[in-house]
Amino acid sequence: MPNAELPRRTLQELAVIYKLEPDTKDVIVEGSSDKYLIEWFLEDSGVDDAVVYDINTFHVDALTVDKWGAEHNNRGRIIAFAYEMESVVGHRPYLACVADADFDIFLKRTQTASNLLFTDYACMEMYAFNTRALNKYLKLNVGRFPKSGARVLAEITGVLEELFLIRLVNSTFHMNLRSVAWERSATLGNSAINFDTKDYVSRCLNKNCSAADLPRFLTEISVLRKELTSDSRNQIQGHDFVELLSWYIAQHKGFSRALPDLVQRGLFTAAAEPEGLKKEKLFATLLSRFQ
Predict the structure, then answer these.
(1) How far is 280 from 231, CA to CA, in rounded Å?
(2) How far apart are the first and last CA of the chain?
């Protein structure tokens, strides 16, 4: 987060800088974890003249977000930033605004701003959603865990996809539901996490005084569930992955629940393998722009 004592830069100020200094190399990302991963990747790849910023460094006002039909969150501000900057200063080869793909891959939605790049999967955390990275995380950050990365992925994937669908329906119906603890609807079985979708959704709707919406909410989940693809990375939300992995590990004797920030950092460290990342479209595009 930026220093609270310093005013955040406005888009108007940035537009002036970009017009006066066209060779300025900037990458704008959603948060600090994304910043550190991409910053490390570029520096490790020999790019030492690009600066990576958290979007919270800049003031992207609500009117600008609404102008471009984006959501009022960090991802939405990234998208609005990219469109607004392109409308003012045109295409800039040395500007990259990096956002999570979120629901766009699943829903086959596209964005057209030339300065806007998206993760290859639903979110940045999905670069660690593979056996190699998870084995690395379990060995270096957890230690002595009794299950392999492959088994962990097999046991957590189903509930993560279900949570993704619940988020998607919430977004599709524009319900803006306040969440409740999903853990009360989950238990760890012998080969997977048993998750009671109806119980969880019912509790969410009850908390939000929307109990009557339960049938149509569950029906929509059933419809969308048929659209799930073979690549789970396109249909898992990063926050859910971090939170559920922390909970899952703590369900095993001798292990405690780690703070989400620590889990996320550990996963990003596990994913930080230059040769592997260079094969991903997002990171390859960043190198082609800035090298």
Answers:
(1) 15
(2) 27
- Model pTM greater than 0.85? yes
Q: What is the spatial distance between Cα 103 and Cα 53, in angstroms, rounded to a whole number?
A: 24
Same domain, 53 and 113: yes
* CA distances in angstroms from 96 to 8, 30, 63, 135, 282, listed in the order given: 19, 12, 22, 31, 10
pLDDT reported for residue 5: 52
Res 7: pLDDT: 73
Per-residue pLDDT, 1: 44
Q: What is the dihedral of CA 53, 266, 164, 182, to 10 degrees?
A: -120
- Taking the C-alpha atoms of residue 118 and residue 237, their distance in angstroms, rounded to an integer, is 14
- Cβ partners under 8 Å of residue 283, min gap 6: 41, 277
> Could you read off the pLDDT of 235-255 as tens digits, one per residue?
999 999 999 999 999 999 999
**Contact status, residue 80 vs residue 97, Cβ threshold 8 Å:** no
With respect to residue 286, please indicate whether it lies within any of the assigned structural domains.
no
Query: What are the tens digits of pLDDT across the range 192-212?
Result: 999 999 999 999 999 999 999
How many domains does the chain divide into? 2
Q: Take residue 183 and report the two structure tokens written for it.
A: 């853990």
User: The domain containing residue 82 runs over which residues?
Assistant: 9-118
Determine the Cα angle at 96 with ends 131 and 92, to 5°: 155
